[in-house]
Write the structure tokens for this entry.
Amino acid sequence: MKRKAVIIGGGPAGLAAAVSLKDNGIEDVLILERGSSLGGILTQCIHNGFGLHTFKEELTGPEYAARFIEMAKERNVEALLNTMVVDISHDKVITCMSKDKGIFTIEAESVILAMGCRERPRGALNTPGYRPAGIYSAGTAQRFVNIEGKMPGKEVVILGSGDIGLIMARRMTLEGAKVKAVAEIMPYSGGLKRNIVQCLDDFGIPLKLSTTVVDIKGKDRVESVTLAKVDDKMTPIPGTEEVIPCDTLLLSCGLLPENELSDKMGVKLSPVTGGPIVDESLNTNIPGVFACGNVLHVHDLVDYVSEEATLAGKFAAEYIKEGERPINGPEFKIETGKGVRYTVPVTVHPDRAPELTTVRFRVGNVYKDPEICVYMGDKCVLRRKKQICAPGEMEQVIIKKADLKNLKDGEKIVVCLENVL
Amino acid sequence: MESKTLTCINCPMGCQVTITYEMKDGRINEETMTVTGNTCLRGKTYAISEVTNPVRTVTGTVGLSNRELRVVPVKTKTPVPKDKVPDVAKALADVKVEAPVHIGDVVIKNVCGTGSDIVITDNIE
Ligand SMILES: Cc1cc2nc3c(=O)[nH]c(=O)nc-3n(C[C@H](O)[C@H](O)[C@H](O)COP(=O)(O)OP(=O)(O)OC[C@H]3O[C@@H](n4cnc5c(N)ncnc54)[C@H](O)[C@@H]3O)c2cc1C
Ligand code: SF4
């Protein structure tokens, strides 16, 4: 089977990319989704707060997904559900597996990677002793409670203050459980501010920073966990232990882009984000292979996922219409300066770039009153004051094609923070 | 004059909004009030309502009588007073509906006397 545009993953990224491909004149668009429905992780994110920037109203996860599913339907986007992609070759031959069809292959002209992310494994938890029942990842607990209607336990401690952990603290409280504490090993929370306010403060759930789990008691089922403060080398400080009786421990230790497929096909990955290294067109190092959404870098705002995926769809449509575009003109690297952990994209081609290119990034620490700066060569082309920058909140700057055009051979683009220690 | 700094919860931007105000006849005197730090108008509206009448949208699930291991998500159609949140959550506990259900279907009218309805937030055929 030969197809023009094939999208791996039917979450918000895959759906928005599909809609955009259609709107940009590509008729033949196929989504491959391993789950039994479209919508990705959003189907289990039943809380509200999605889509204000896209739809100018506040939606829950399933409602936001339904809007995009509807748009995809209106445009006759084809989707194969219960279809797992098991391999993609360097020349874009996709191997899939499904119950009805068995194993089959698809030759794609363009591939859009939109596989999302998965939870970090529980390696973070280095405690001796048994592995009793009652320890779950926060995302698994979320699926139990929100999809299957099953409560994992009654007295809960949460390790990690990522958004899923915070959301689950509120969710389980409203379902009648007692959430005794959220422990975070870092001195700041990795979650969105509003989730700390709305999910913890509203219910008087303590957030214990610089704190980790050092022991879990219980043989068949968790009976208690021991928390301890950590020093600045993240080593537990003796004498600060606190035993908290509970029957459930949720681990919310962050998300990792799901890129085994990309890696195997030869897509270069960033060691910082775990996602593909892309240029301004969201093209990976393989021409015609694009990436967007959480598979590219972990987003906290689905609106930006949709925005990024819409762009990926547009660039993929251009690629399909024009055939393999020669990289005419130079390529410049965007380097990370002080305070900035990574940027997406990593490279830009001034000749190819649209009038405005959005560069998204995350900072490595909490910074008060920083100035976000963009340098091209030694010229500062953008300077913006912020009240606060934190690792939990993605930042963005917009760079102009006109500025890119002024770059001279060998010059670099640098995104950095200034006015910080 | 009183001053309060709040995190706007209307969208994940989470702007830090500072409201400086005085109360006049149980209401905010809007003439002397100042609001800063909000990116859009909703931040201002939110800050005013947080100091006068805080509200929250409650989300949860209700059971499906004809499906196994599947519940369906719901929300309050409009936000309810913050102190009613626990009551509203309890009111959902034993409710069951029959599939198919669709986004916007009303499950409970005027839940806990809040004037807001509980509505379905996903499509299950
Ligand atoms: C708990 C939680 C709370 C959140 N809260 C908010 C919020 O309040 N507001 C907000 O704006 N955003 C929120 N987000 C962020 C937002 O939901 C995500 O950024 C967004 O869902 C990412 O979309 P995606 O399409 O990249 O990934 P996903 O939604 O993960 O979709 C990826 C899809 O790809 C499929 N897939 C993966 N591998 C394969 C394969 N090999 N073959 C076939 N299919 C495959 C998966 O089954 C899945 O359906 C939250 C996220 C989480 C996890
Ligand atoms: S003020 Fe506007 S942009 Fe800022 S958090 Fe509130 S709703 Fe979002």
